[in-house]
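Example record

One chain of 122 residues, shown exactly as stored in the release files.
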Amino acid sequence: MKTHLKHNIPKLVISPSVTQEQAEASMMLLQNFNQCIMGLAHFSGMTPWERHQDDEFLQILEGKVDVIILTPEKTITESLQEGECFVVPKDVWHKQSSSEGVKLMFITSLEGNQTSMEEYPQ
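Predicted structure tokens for this chain:
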């Protein structure tokens, strides 16, 4: 199946007042990939914490993003820019922050995903 990654997806400015409908409009689900889903997202701000039962692949298409990873020992920040890729290990709490905005492609688990608004989820 052929997929074009240059899509006009509205940018979500993440804030406490964002609705589920607005969040979904800033993402485009492209296709299933084994037990995962491939999609595009366009946002600025800080996402909630999330973790997945499989590794998550991220490729930055436009802009910059910090991926914040929570380990038992410390918090790690990986700064990514256009053209770079990153794999978030399975079962690790992480969130993303982009002050100017980012467009990225993700491949993540279809099932078993969790999100948290806590400061440091367990």
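Notes: The beta strands are 12-13, 27-33, 36-46, 49-51, 56-70, 75-81, 85-88, 93-109, 114-116.
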